[in-house]
Amino acid sequence: MNNMPTVTKNLLIINALVFVVTLLPLSTLDVTRDFGLYYFQSPDFHFYQLLTYMFVHSSQSFSHIFFNMFALWMFGRVMENVWGPRKFLFYYLLCGLGAGLTQEVAQFLHVIIEGDALTYIDTTQGTLAITVRQLAYVTPTIGASGAVYGILLAFGMSFPNERMFIFPIPVPIKAKWFVIGYAAIELFSVWASANDGVAHVAHLGGMLFGFLAILYWRRHPGSDARFSQNRGHEFFDNLKRSFEKRKGPKTTANTGRQSSREADMEYNARKQQRQAEVDAILDKIRKSGYDSLTKEEKKRLFDASNER
């Protein structure tokens, strides 16, 4: 946890604390009821729920929060190191907000089309028949999945050719195919699993808003905060380079001469100095993000990535 980027760590902590509160027998507070996202025409709807719902997870299913937080830890820390804390937090909240808005639109269309149709849900008292409209009014949307799916998309677009081992697939697959596969599954589930209690449309909404944000950043790069696939590759390449075993200097034809030995010593000294500078810059990225670098540090990192 000490080495984890600030925003990712705090998001994990907040989600965990809220989940613990949902398990406590507090008569005056129902986290899901008060902070989950209700359909906008429901009397229980409040605008702040568009933000709070993404920090609430079902107390009936530990897997709900576990898999969301595992994905946030796995992919979020990488993206925060690339983007920096402020940009990463903005993106995370944007995807969560976009997922909530998409879910609201989907519910509105569902109510318009099939509002008076009966649907059946299982309760402790048995099967209950209820209209689609009534069900929308009383069922809140909760969970960080929309924001997490946006982070997953960002990782796939930043590092499309990074290979990943995904259980139970026995061979590594590229990140881009992993993301495309997840998106396809969610799209298929919108129709095939419409009554499974999972907000598949919200997942797609988080990915959609994330895609639009990344597309905008790529087309309108700032002078001090660029986003591109190249930065992602440079980030991984430099991290790998910092752990690689340093190679010795190239030998010359006249290795036995004193001048050659002196040249080798100077070469080693310069190489060690350059490596120390790059290591310091990478450590700064790990702690504060890429956007915290000065122009000189960014130029040094760029030059180092092009050295052979």
Note down, in words, how this protein is organized:
There is one protein chain. This protein has 308 residues and is mostly helical. The chain is built from 12 helices and 4 strands, in the order αααααββααββααααα. It has helices at 6-23, 31-35, 49-52, 62-83, 85-114, 132-138, 145-158, 175-192, 200-219, 229-243, 258-288, 295-305, and strands at 118-123, 126-131, 163-164, 173-174. The strands form 2 sheets. The protein has a two-stranded antiparallel sheet with strand order 1-2. The protein has a two-stranded antiparallel ribbon with strand order 3-4. α5 packs across α7. The protein is elongated.
The amount of helix comes to 55-70%
Structural class: mainly alpha
Distance between the termini: 35 Å
Q: Determine the number of helices (DSSP H or I, runs of at least 4 residues).
A: 12
Shape: elongated
Largest β-sheet summary: 2 strands, antiparallel
SSE sequence, one letter per element:
HHHHHEEHHEEHHHHH
Strand order of the largest sheet: 1-2
Given as residue ranges, the uncertain stretches (5+ residues, pLDDT < 50) are 223-229, 246-255
The whole-angstrom Rg is 25 Å
Average pLDDT rating: 81
**Beta-strand fraction estimate:** 5-15%
Annotation, overall tally of beta strands: 4
